Amino acid sequence: MRNFLIINILAIALYSCTDINDEHQEYLDKGENIYTEKPDSLIVSPGFQRAKLQWFLYSDTSIKKARVFWNAGKDSLDVNISVNPQVKNVIEVIVPNLDEGVHTFAVLTLDGFDNKSIPVSIGGRVYGSSYQSGLSNRAITAYTNEGNSIVFKLANVFFDGYIDSELKYIDKEGLEQVIKLTDEAKTEFKIDDDGIDLNEPIYYRSIFQPQNSVDLFYSDYAQFDQ
């Protein structure tokens, strides 16, 4: 088993601050100083109006918190952390309430005396309503009776970030049901013919997950024209 520790932290403190460049200039001006361990291998994962930052820390037990900057340093958050020197510490922080678009993030660590590390920066995209409203549906092209089942066939078309589809229908008991694609090749929905009321409307939609996204995105439901 890999020996590492994952620390999942939700951003809780938000306040205005000086420009990120001021953080760098401080180290140039002061010369010799005490620096905490800086974040290693910083990555950013997109989400719906949020982003997840992840990095590693290894040995500096003096570290008490991390500080994340964005919006050209005008916004930031502090998160409490602790470092176990016996393991590889994986730090994960969710930055919420972000506008859709490309953001630049900077991360530094601090000890109990506010000694700081050198900041580490990274850029990443955040998704929102504009992205979601532009998603296309992978259409149902036909349905057939196969034995005791009804099979809905999907178009052999895949879109960037597409991972699955959903079918929403009414069963013979009058209850709404939602299922995902039922075959490994992701080409069809199969339902027992006594489990669906074909006299009721049938709807479908597509599910997307952009690369490394922490969230799923859904197209609008479309009605299947029987």
From TrEMBL:
Domain of life (superkingdom): Bacteria
Organism in which the protein naturally occurs: Snuella sedimenti
Alphabetical list of PROSITE patterns matching this protein: PROKAR_LIPOPROTEIN (PS51257)
Pfam families, alphabetized: DUF4998 (PF16389)
Record's protein name: DUF4998 domain-containing protein
